[in-house]
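[job 4471] stage=fold_predict status=RUNNING
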Amino acid sequence: MGSQLNLNLGHRFTLSREKYFISSANSLAIRAVDDWTIRTEPGIIIVGPKSSGKTHLASVWRKETGAESLNINQVFSLDVKSLVKEKFLVIENLNDLTSLNENEKKIIEEKILHVYNFFVGFGGKILITATNPPGNCGIQLADLLSRLMALQIAELSLPDDDLLAAIMAKQFADRQILVSPQVIGHAMARMERSFWFADKLVEALDSESMSVKKPISKKLVNRVIDNLVSLGPKT
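[job 4471] inference complete, writing structure tokens
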């Protein structure tokens, strides 16, 4: 790894001021989500592997639109009529349908179909996240599957090492922290390849460094990474 990383990274802030960096791994998906005001389709599906930033991107959209957010298990007990005043809705982890029993899947699929039809009728928008396209999510209700297959799919991929290293270098610089390329390279060899982990690692290293009143070292990186692993990734 070189001593300097010169990448012009765009970023946005959610209302909680978490940074969402734009790269080749997510730029097309971000553009698709940003264009929701001009799309005629009633929804969009964000598809990507675990830790690729689906939940983070959905959170950006949710906070921009004021959308309600539900995961698949919450849809099971959803009263569709309660959405009568809603214009926007996020449904997370459509792929979790594959882990449910047949009765649960049937109820949830029927409710998602009702929500879809309701939003179509009243001009609402739905954003769905999943690790796989609808055809690979175990959907058995044909009417629902056909509707979801007609929606635009925005694909995310995992960030590459150069991008993650650049993100970390920029975040350290934003915090006015000097961290050597060698230490960042050491972290890259051990960390999870995700935007979530890079963001949390920088935040935790900053906090821990101030707490122990020592600069960020390889030893400190090892300890902080071990602590973060126990927290688990975001989707």
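[job 4471] summary: Strands lie at 10-13, 19-22, 43-47, 68-71, 88-92, 125-130, 152-155.
[job 4471] exit 0
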